[in-house]
Amino acid sequence: MKTRNEDILFFSSDKLAALGLESLLSSLPVACQLHELWSLSTVMAKCEKMKPRLLVCIFHENMPLTGTLKVLYALQQQFPTMQIVVLTRRLLPLMHALSRYLPSLTVLDLKSSRQMLSSRLLTSINANAQIQLVEGADILLPDRQLRVLLMMAWGYSIEHIGIRLGISHKTVNAHKLNALARLQVKSKNDMADLYMVIDELRMIVSWLRLQRNGKLSELSFQSLEELLEA
Question: Which residue has the higher pLDDT, 24 or 131?
């Protein structure tokens, strides 16, 4: 008899990509029922209601990334046994690095072959399988580097950031270059994507440090919505 944890949720704001993803998931040799999500804003409610085995998301090139990292982190905290697969080409090193700290998250290159995608999706459905993590960026940046990137995303100039932080513009620029190198951000498009999520990344890094120091449990969130809005 089919059980609720055999449900699979999938999302892509690109409808053609959603059709391709549905076809790929339908071809997997597993007994499951597919459910398409029309918006990431509904993912929490759907996961709470259905308790799916797997969530698959496509972050394509035209999709705003704002909010995506926070949702991924919140899903990990709320549904630690649910596997999450993200297919994307955007900020891949950063996404791979995030998956090191979120055990249920797998990040795949959207341009991977159908055979590889099928294999990795099956591995994710089998939650007990060990997935080899891909080397990626280093997201645990010092707070000063994260703050510089955040202020740049807000539109502050190097000189203005230096004045606000009480450091020279050369030091600000060094923080910027070191941060971009560690995050493996190399293009203007990557920079634009990073600016969309830098505030979320800074929050997640803070939470990960609290978790590593055993202090995350000291934070009290009355609801998942508060976690997402923190």
Answer: 24
